[in-house]
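Students often ask why we bother encoding 3D structure as a string. The short answer is that it lets us treat folding as translation between two languages. Here is a chain of 512 residues written in the first language.
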Amino acid sequence: MTDSTDSRRALDLDALAVGDRFQLFNFTRRDDHVAYLWVLRAMDRLRAVHRVQVDSEDVAAALRELAAAHDEVPQLDAALRNRLDALADDKIIHRLEDASRAGTLARYRNRQSVYQFSELGYRAFTAVEDVLAVRVRDVNLSRLVFSDILDDLRSLATANRGGDEDQVYRRLSRLDQVMEDMVRRSARFHVTLGEIVTSTEASPELFLRYKNALLTHMSDFMAELDRYLPRLDRAVREVEASGVNTMLIRAADADDRPFLSGIERIDDWKRRWEALRVWFTATPGSASGAADLRRATRSAVSGVIALLRQLTEAQRGGVNRASELRHLAEWIYNTPDEDAAYALTTAAFNLSSARHLGGAHDDAEQISPRATWWNAPGIEVALTPFRTGRQAGPGLPQPVRTDTGVRADLRRRQLEARAAEREAAQDLAGNGAHDRILNEAETRVLLALLTRALEARSVVAGRLTSGSGSDDTVVMRLVPEPKGSSVRTRHGMLHLPGFALEIVSRVGRTDG
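And here it is in the second language, the structure alphabet:
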């Protein structure tokens, strides 16, 4: 469906693109957001009569026309240009310079700006208008739409078998629009019904007034869905039997969106068809979207019936949340003293006195004495005073526990690592460090020896003359070399300007 496709595309946007598009809604967060909304409504009014580029005078005239029909339109003659410029800064509209609109020399010398909606800006404006236009009582389940979907699927299969590209495109487009409307209606209905079920204390009379119509509406929808679901499943399979790939290519060829390539149009129609197929055709291991909708509607019917039973019993017995609160208020009012009233209120609402915890910061000199507790940085508090209010003690000393198995395993791993280091050092002494690629173990030994040699180097007349480093296996010397040398490892090349490495074994050797 279109909504799911747009959602997947939105997930692929990076943080910069998301922040740039959220900027389009900046006008809703301004102090005078209502004024900005009416300015955009005036521009939309002009856009509806094909006046795309307008100046501030055109917008002012449209605002006066709106003010004649709506008392809420503000007076913006003096600050209208500033608001248009602010909307242009938010990229919801484009600001262009048009000198041809200057009728006099004075107007030509002044800036002659014209404004028009940007594509994303107009979508942001219509999104806000859709939210403001939503009415709770408008929600409903589209019961009669299943017959239209069935006819479109059968016509789609016939058109695909007959090779009618235009008819294939028309039927797929109509199915996409009908499915989008059905999904949106169903989602709105169940969300609104959930809000009604969870907030019955606000208006139980309204719920009881419309309970019969609500239950009838959902029952009729489920009956129609149960009747058409097998037919829709067969119709989808008939379309697939006529050739899905051929159908998608024909729809893409008839699609006249100029900014999409042929492959992109085929991928777009493939996503829409897959979404439609998932709605009416079950796959092994998962139910169809229509089956999920039926299950959600049945669950909603059960919730409404349970709520109706609860309200009926409350009205019959005269006990509900309001009556309970009134009785509690009467008990608190009739308590003998103020302490008893506080005690009863605390027990009824599960209240307790606040525990104030505090302590000294590790570096108190960094905290200004004029800083309030709200602005000062926090400190760590032990769990004991936080939970019980008592200061935490050192507690009993814990016995020292020795784990011989862990220690033996650690000793074994240390011996293995040391043996590997000795073997790598012997390989360096036997094969040298140059003209080959060192492995990981040899590289670690070489870097350790090189660090010791550099720490023990001798400098004469400002120049490094020699240096050596050793362990219990080998000795490495830095030998002067005019051309320098390099050592190749698996991670790259190590350059040694002015020196070469000489590595010999300590076995059978005594340093003088």
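Translate back mentally: The chain has a mean pLDDT of 79. Keep this in mind for the problem set.
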